[in-house]
Give the backbone structure.
Amino acid sequence: MIIDGNTNLANGVYDNGYNYVTVNGLNIRNITDAGISVRNVIAGVVIENNSVYSGNPNGGNARGYDVRNSVGQNGQYAVVVQGNSYSTPASTTAQTDGIWSSGNNPFCSRGTTKMDKVYGCARSKATWMGND
């Protein structure tokens, strides 16, 4: 399924507080902020096998996956981001982030790529793994 924001839509998918949601197999493009944004969940959100092309060539933010303030219960991950891809315009003044993670604990991202970089699981934030 394709979600095309025509550079007028901030997010392709927005989840604020809905648990046990799976977002799988979407092709999201021409979004001005984040392709997939998740906020304030506590359990069972899986973001997998999606492709996001994000970023307004005129500036702003350009995030593929934006996860905030999601805290798991009993040591479980509230959100797992896995097997996704992300790209931005060739030239943009936007801040570009493959995955933005803030206020999450624990947080897991695995197998999500932007060019040659791969994210790995982290207890509190997403981290780059590989050569910068």
About this structure: Confidence is low (pLDDT under 50) at residues 114-132. The radius of gyration is 14 Å.
